[in-house]
Structures are given as structure tokens and as C-alpha cells.
Amino acid sequence: GSYSHRAVMKGSDEIAQIAAEFNSLTGRLQTTEEARRRFVSDASHEMKTPLAGIKLLTDSILQTENIDLETTREFVADIGDEAARLERITEDLLRLTRLDSGAMEPAVKVAVGPVLERAVRMLRPVAQERNIDLSWQADPAAIVLATEGEIHQILYNLMENAVKYTAPGGFVHTEVCVDGGQVVMTVADNGMGIPEEDMSHIFERFYRVDKARSREVGGTGLGLSIVGDTVHRRDGQITVAAREGGGTVFTVRFKKVSGVTA
Ligand code: ADP
């Protein structure tokens, strides 16, 4: 008697457990589905603005009688700017989709210094144009397990933001050092800073502190979510903090690996 009673109890426990598991899974799927819907809706919204601009500009050219060459050129240049914005959005969306797919290239030993040097070289013209002092320093022992493309993407996006959100005359300083068993990369600027209440959100897709400002500097609102996802998929950590004396510091940590091939 007691045996069968216990068996039933045990059985219903298991069923309850399975039910709870099922409910939790359904909940998670719903959240994922909701996030996906929101993402598609946000992305569409984001692309609608430049598309509307292109449509308006072409209509203006076509509907203005005896439009002069100079005005035409001006409008066409604006159309080009909107197209460039669309291109940036699509590129970032494709990057995120690839990250979401979970497909990963095999990790290799990446020396961070040379990757940083290349990213700085690419950003130098933008920094010069904005009169921002761009400096860097890297420990040759800073070697991590990832792909060069991933490390480039992380450093490039962080430095590009730092340049974009710092006023002319400011600086952006990137440092890569070894701290015990870790490689620590910091990107510091003395720019406009990020309000405390926004810091926990800036890695979310399409989140911006100041939408108008982001658009003005050509932002898509996706840069930091790409950085965050890339860091996490390689088991790294990323944090953001206010810089003492004004500005922002982003810190990325990865496990350090030895340069000697075993
Ligand atoms: P965006 O394309 O708008 O730059 P990101 O995902 O790269 O999008 O960054 C999200 C937001 O975080 C930006 O819109 C900006 O408000 C803020 N932000 C990022 N980096 C910095 C920085 N170095 N200084 C100040 N604000 C920043």
C-alpha cells in the first residue's frame, strides 16, 4: 500500500517537474519570440527614416520644374548620405544575425597589439577631422583566444564611439595590458560621458542615450550590442564606467593565453 502510494506521489512529482520545466521553456520561448518581434520592428523603423528621406529627395528633384544642376547635385548628395546610412544599418544587422546564429569560427591565438594598431590606423582620419588625439599602448604579451576579426570589431567599435562622442580637442586613449591571467583592454575618452541611469542599457539593441546625437554622428544604435555579444561569446567580460575627470571608460577582459604554441 505504502509503496504504491509513494510511487504515485513520485510519479506526480515528476509530472509536476516536467510541467514546470515545460512552462518555463514556453515562457523563455515567448520572451525570445517577443524579443525577435521587437527587433524586427525596431530594425524596420530604423530603415524607414532614411528610405523616406530618399523618397522625398527624389520626388523633389522630379517634381521641381527647371531644377538647376547645383540643387540637383545637392539633393543627390543627400540621397547618397541616406543610402550610406542604410548600408551601415544593414551591415550591423547582418553582423548581429551572424552572432545570433551561434555559428563560430574556430578560436585562434590573437595578439591584440597589431589588431589595435590596425584599428587605430583606420580611425586616424576621422579622429584628425574631429581634432581628437588618438593614442594607444599595448603589451606584446596580450594574447587571447578569439578571431582577429572579433578583436578588431570590439576595439574598432569602442574607439569609433569614443571619437564620435568626444568634443573636438578631446582625447581617446586605448590601453591593452596583462593583469595576472587576464588581458585587459581599456578605451578611455574625455567626452560627453554616459549618464549613470543609461549605463545598464547601452548594450541593448538600438538603445541610445541621445537619438538625435547618435543619428548626427552616423550611429545605428547597434555598435555596442555587437561588441557586447562578441565579447560574451568568447567568454570575456565588458564593463563601462564614468571616467574620473569626465568622459567614459570601457573595459574588456579576456583570459590571457601564452604565446608559445603547445
Ligand atoms: P550608436 O550607433 O548610437 O553609437 P552604440 O550601440 O554604439 O550606438 O552606442 C549606444 C549609445 O551609447 C550611443 O548612442 C551613445 O549614446 C552611447 N555611447 C556609446 N559610447 C559612448 C562614449 N564613448 N561616450 C558617450 N556616449 C557613448
Describe it for me?
With 262 residues, the chain is α+β, with helices and mostly antiparallel strands. 56% of the residues lie in helices and 17% in strands. Strands 2-4-5-7-6 form a 5-stranded mixed beta sheet, covered by helices on one side. The radius of gyration is 24 Å and the shape is globular. The structure holds adenosine-5'-diphosphate. Residues 161-162, 165, 189, 191-194, 202, 207-210, 214, 219-225, 248 line the site of adenosine-5'-diphosphate.
Question: Which key features would you list for this structure?
Answer:
262 residues, alpha+beta, five-stranded mixed β-sheet, 56% helix, disordered N terminus, binds adenosine-5'-diphosphate, histidine kinase
Short description:
The protein has helices at residues 2-63, 69-101, 112-129, 148-164, 211-216, 223-233, and strands at 108-111, 133-138, 143-146, 171-179, 182-189, 237-242, 248-255. By secondary structure, the chain is an alpha+beta fold. The strands form two sheets. The chain has a five-stranded mixed sheet, covered by helices on one side.
